[in-house]
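Preliminary data (for renewal application), manganese (II) ion complex.
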Amino acid sequence: MYENISAIDALVKAAKRILLIQADNPDGDSLGSSLALEHILSKMGKDVYLYCGVDIPGYLKYVPGFDRVNQDFPTSFDLSIIVDASTMTLLEKIHDGGYHTKLATKPCIVLDHHAVVERPIHYATESIIDSSRASAGELIYLLAKELTWQMPIEALDAITVSILGDTQGLSNQLTTATTYQVMSEMVAAGVNRPKIEEARRELSKMPMSILQYKGRLLARTEFFHDGTIATNTVPQQEITTFSPLYNPGPLVQFDMLQTIGVKIAIVFKSYDDGKITAAIRCNAGYGVGGILAEKFGGGGHAFAAGFKTIDGRPFNVIKSECIAYASQLLSNLTQAPIDETPQYAYSTN
Ligand SMILES: [Mn+2]
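Predicted structure:
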């Protein structure tokens, strides 16, 4: 398997207090990996502390144990394990707090599956970064199995959340034969996937007023550039009324992308104080989201990006410029479509 697993085993066995770290972009894999390790290591008799520098997003609050993740960096620990991240860029909260010096004084294990790492974690004692794994949770399963670490059912449930999160329900190209094999072993060991899915669906249900608002928003969708760009605008009054109940963007953006001909879906929010935000999502083959967002001072990935302007320019000016640049980017693409897979958040809707 991996040549350093016995070194990892030794570091874990030698530690009493273990700090589990999620990076600043917690998702289902990040949380599931951390919780899985918490259960496995607790079973070994370790004191385990879960840390994430930012809030666990609302859509993950169906996962049992999400509320055990702390935002306060602990005062003492013998070993840290960073899950689902291997770049310093995503550990800014730790660096801002000056805690990295503390991390560097103790052994640190990195368990990740991201392919491209720009600023590797220089104080890592042992790392496994395997981009052939569908999720960090899958990597943790294989590691624990190899090291014959006991995995209680709660750990397997958490690994299921992690795998389903990154593979969008075993549907994207990250899913391999090993992923199915791991899922098969976990289901045989008692994981109840329908129950996990039901908990997720229950949490993401919307109030009646939101369903009706969704209908109104969809009816207001505008189309540009021969129907390839769909936009929606949420004014301040609706942000005030509906945002506390449900984020208007994700409410309609998937349906906008599922409209025949649409390549880019943009949801603008226009605030009374002049702030304007845009959430950009793109369909497969048209991953210009990141470039589009950067033009307006934002950023993100090819298929999911966003920007915020606070320079006082009127909403209609920003909107027109954004649509014009998006049109230009799409026109430039006709020769060479960007062939990557879009990363919709599986767990949000
Ligand atoms: Mn991941």
